[in-house]
Request: fold
Amino acid sequence: MVLPLTKFILFRNHFFRKFSPLHRIFQGHVCFEQFPFLQKFSTSGHCERLSWERSTEEILLGKLKFALRNHQIVREKSGLLHADTLTKLALSLARLQMTCPASVVLRLMLDKGCVPSMHLLSLVVFHIAKTEIGTYLASNYLFQVCDFYNCLNDKKGNHAVKVELDTLVFNLVLDACVRFKLSLKGLSLIELMSMTGTVADAHSIVIISQILEMNGLRDELKELKDHIGRVSSVYVWHYRQFYDSLLSLHFKFNDIDAAAKLVLDMTSSHNYDVKKECEKHLQKPCFIAIGSPFLRTVLKIHIEPELLHKDSVLKVESRQDLIFYKGGKLVLSNSALAKFISGYKKYGRIGELSKLLLSIQGELNSVAGSSLCSDVIGACIQLGWLECAHDILDDVEATGSPMGRDTYMLLVSAYQKGGMQRETKALLKQMKKVGLDKGLSDDAIDEHNLCEETLNSLGKADLAIALVQILKDEDQTVFPLVYNLNSSIFFFCKAGMIEDALRAYRRMVDMKIQPTSQTFAFLMCGYSSLGMYREITILWGDIKRFMRSGNLVGNRDLYELLLLNFLRGGYFERVLEVISHMRDHNMYPDKWMYKNEFLRLHKNLYRSLKASNTRTEAQSKRLEHVQEFRKWVGID
Reply:
């Protein structure tokens, strides 16, 4: 029986117990003679004395890395390494956070036509995706698995082989994409889920909502909302992050009305017959469009909102920036309230703010333990927005249920401190009118006691702090029109309407609105789908110009997309240019993926041509670039 290779890696005490004693590792020696196939790890066929200057682990790991770079014994005696052996090796390497070697093993297995069982693959991915580089490698591996099965299907014709990737595997990588802010990579994985027919469970939907939010795709996120709104109340707590993502996009689009409507729907969701709605809509398979449903051809993903796998390794964490779950209900955070206050005040729509606050007042009172309207009035007073505070006070009073005495007195105190005697007297008369004048007179008010009493009210200080932060952040946020234009560009590119997409892009530039990574990525995908690789070289010029001006920061997602498209188009000078940019930014390149893409498309390009035989200077330069790329990815 072949000794698993993992025994030569995991020799720490707890691994000794797990994998049994490692024979022939004693007294500073490692004997390879007992296991002939392991001689591939040694520079000779004899027992090797290990240097005391380096640990046994360092030497063995060094030999393992060398062997992996040169494909182990896969080339000569591939029959000696079985799938279970390689799977255990990949898992052991992943546990040691050796993500690159672990991915090499997975890919070597794929070259042999083997994919680990979904249970074991999910464990490997769980460990690999703990780092940003590992997340890229894991996601690229999933694409390669799908490409491998598609290749098999092309060869077998009618006898198609269907790849069934596990939901958990996708969830782990998607969650890591959110964690490391890999928005474009996450979006491509969502599309891959659709293409492979992988079911999206409750975890998937929450993570997908986060990725759609990161890419500013509000219409796509709204497509999910109707189906999420029908889940039973048992699952409402799980979807708080979904509502958080959609509410966040409404604010980014500067659509305060849509944000208010979402909040009202969210807080009143218990008013309809949940069981009846679930039976009506969720007993049948549910397919949601990834991209606008108005497109002629659109990818659709199978979702089951009430499917929640009991996964011990995946815990989808909520940021709870805008919405949190408390007392069995979804409630607004101070940040969300601050955004509403800021948004309505900016456009002088205080009456609508009051209406919203009153609509959700009952829902939040029983949970928050304080008056929502009172907290908002207090925050406005602390920021010096006294007229705004008084307007809300009047709106609440007009409902026939005026605010409490403390709230009125807080505003009275603020008027007094500001020397606004006329406003003070008017408010005191107003208090008498609603029966809150006990112990007060127009001429005698203890200003000090009023301030001490009212400023100690719970909740008001926290909301004021949140409001100050929101106002500060608004000066640094992306211009809302960017999200609208990006959304249009995404739609046009998916529809193959590249000229319309370009018009939207040119409009953005003409209006001096800074394009984002999503802008260029969406355009690039549109060009790529039509095979317009030359146009991507022109777009690359725009990207570099914005980078030089400091208005755009290149990220790995964007560079990877550029590199792959230049490879497909055969623009090797541009390929080397992007590689140089990645190197300058210390970005790890997935050479394996680029190597496979080159071999798939340009395997024999200039293979037998020598520099002395080139006919033109352009051909000579291109040969030089191809040879440099082949050397970079390790092609002989």
